[in-house]
Amino acid sequence: MLLIHCPYCEETLPEAEFTYAGQAHVIRPENPSGQTDDQWEEFLFIRANPKGPHYERWRHFHGCGRFFNAVRDTVSDKFLTTYKAGAPRPDLSSLTEGLK
Amino acid sequence: MTHFSAFSLLKNALTGHKAWTEQWPDSQPKKEYDVIIVGAGGHGLGAAYYLATQHGITNIAVIDKGWLGGGNTGRNTTIIRSNYLYDESAKLYDHAVDLWENLSQELNYNVMYSRRGVLMLAHNVHDVQSFKRHIHANRLNGVDNRWLTTQECKDYCPPLNISPNARYPVMGGALQERAGTARHDAVAWGYARGAAMRGVDIIQNCAVTAIRRNADGSVAGVETAKGFIKAKKVAVSAAGHTSVVMETAGVRLPLESYPLQALVSEPVKPIFPCVVMSNAVHAYISQSDKGELVIGSGTDQYTSYSQRGGLPLIEHTVAAITEVFPIFNRMRMLRKWGGIVDVTPDRSAIISKTPVEGLYVNCGWGTGGFKATPGAAHTFAWTIAKNEPHPINAPFTMERFRTGRLIDEAAAAAVAH
Prior knowledge:
Number of domains of chain A: 1
Strand order of the largest sheet of chain A: 3-4-5-6
Number of helices of chain A: 2
Strand content of chain B: 15-25%
Shape of chain A: globular
Mean pLDDT of chain B: 95
Shape of chain B: globular
Order of helices and strands of chain B: HEHEEHHEHEHEEHEEEEHEEEEHEEEHHH
CATH topology of the largest domain in chain B: FAD/NAD(P)-binding domain
Number of strands of chain B: 18
CATH superfamily of the largest domain in chain B: FAD/NAD(P)-binding domain
Number of strands of chain A: 6
Low-confidence stretches of chain B: none
Oligomer: heterodimer
CATH topology of chain A: Folate-binding fold
Structural class of chain B: alpha/beta
Distance between the termini of chain A: 24 Å
Largest sheet of chain B: 8 strands, mixed
CATH class of chain A: Alpha Beta
Number of domains of chain B: 2
Radius of gyration of chain A: 15 Å
Mean pLDDT of chain A: 93
Order of helices and strands of chain A: EEEHEEEH
Largest sheet of chain A: 4 strands, antiparallel
Number of helices of chain B: 12
């Protein structure tokens, strides 16, 4: 059971309260009709899928209901941090520094 | 290598089974190969076997970071079926079932393919309508599948609870009688033996760290834990780690890797005659020849490479199983494990050339790669040897995510496979 910190509720709660919502910081194109097929493929289907720290979205479904972002290590499943939607992407080196 | 027969069994019995020889040598890498296959699971070893037997290419290495068959080949719930909705999938999976039927004879190795039937339970009106649609589509494609009433389901699988008051009432089911199970380890071993017999090197415990490319962009070979190995062609069949390996060649794929869990009970006497799947409650169950109940579920909700998965999912699956089969509610579970599956957005596989000359990929099997092993291996070998897809895997290219010509089994089943 993962324990996840909701940055809105300021509480660390069990995984069962949350739903996973895929890779974070995937930016919707500003001018959809101007996109090429390659750009659409990239936006819709291509994902980072890293073995290591992963920027991802979660939703506190059975709590405040809000989406937020997280950085989680996909090898250990350990959360490095969670932060509010719209906040800038945290620098990875500062997060992994804390683990040492 | 020993040919297995009643005679060889008898002969070895007389010498106390001490004269059996090894099934394949523990090969060390050569400097150069015609084809390097990354990943020694059923799919990779099978591709090597078909390259050697059907395309005359034997200067092959199959390289794995662990033991052969130690990844998803040895972690799945061994279910084989081909009752997929779309024409493209029906052809691919039924091609695999055709090959399963004769696989033990072809490999001279008992893969214990058992046509015990796969029954998919309908628990609500939507299930009934959707399964009947599947049955009609399957029959038009020549894939066997038929409808069973509630009582017929009970007759086919006596441990089933068909009480109208059940939490998950059984409103009928779709039965594919040609479907069943096979022994997953034996599939990897049989292909490994068949390939090694024809000169294929199987290199275990040697991780491929990167794919190296020539100045003109074509594939040069692979960097491994035992140094650089040159190759004319590189074929990646690395399941959950495919995107990690392909990224080193600059190829990005529409894949996400999720843990998929399974568990087995203590072994008991034969009680469960078939395979039962329930998409609505997302649990699968069968009984192995050893007597263990083999139970599978859906993937965890988050991507991970941990080969472990979370306990809430196991609890959900076991809760569903004990509702549908109350007879098992005091059964003790022995162990559980996870495998990392690579899932595509449309839940159909990719068996394809890549933008890199000489680089091929077989991936995206998600939660249902085992059943396709012989078919995937056979068409992948064809694609590698001829540098063009076999008609059966031609729709399963990676370009479909650009053209939009998806094979949307995700929408067809509303669950992963």
